[in-house]
Amino acid sequence: DSGVTQTPKHLITATGQRVTLRCSPRSGDLSVYWYQQSLDQGLQFLIQYYNGEERAKGNILERFSAQQFPDLHSELNLSSLELGDSALYFCASSVDSQGTEAFFGQGTRLTVV
Amino acid sequence: GENVEQHPSTLSVQEGDSAVIKCTYSDSASNYFPWYKQELGKRPQLIIDIRSNVGEKKDQRIAVTLNKTAKHFSLHITETQPEDSAVYFCAAVTGGGADGLTFGKGTHLIIQP
Questions:
Q1: Most exposed among A75, A103, B43, B107, judged by the fewest C-beta atoms under 10 Å?
Q2: Pseudo-torsion of CA B107, B32, B36, A68, nearest 10°?
Q3: What is the pLDDT of residues A13-57, one digit of tens each?
């Protein structure tokens, strides 16, 4: 158990559809980060939330959105899905807004067909 | 925002030799530099980190050095072992976390028997 829980682990959906990925941070962590990792690619930063508010924004497409709820869990919404959105989506959490000892979840593998 | 460059993209060393991976960052306000190891199909795991008020940090066979003037930091692995084979990512955080946790593109370390 990594302490950061991501659901679902795998997701297969068709182009044009919308999906929601969920992340529960480690107990006590206030920051949640979302990353996209395509095949043989690095970790592309999408967005960060800290204590319920958006803290930083990376290369997140307009078709994607996210939020962090009062209980600190976060959801990443991906809409109008395209084949190129197929990737591993990681969530990480840290106690502060600076990513100190950020801990990654196991990821959600999204396949768009 | 912060930009992190990482070299080399692939590094092959003989078992028992040392490996060095280098990263440069763009924002002089960055003050936290973690390194992550990602094995195939698994989540990135923090292996060592360093703050800007420290020049070097060691943990058994792993060490990280930081040169704030030149804005670069390096990961050193000594006495490499087969289990060190993985992709290694460096990252940097700007003070206050305003730009999130920005990663380099990764180095695929291959340990030759």
A1: A75
A2: -120
A3: 999 999 999 999 999 999 999 999 997 778 999 999 999 999 999
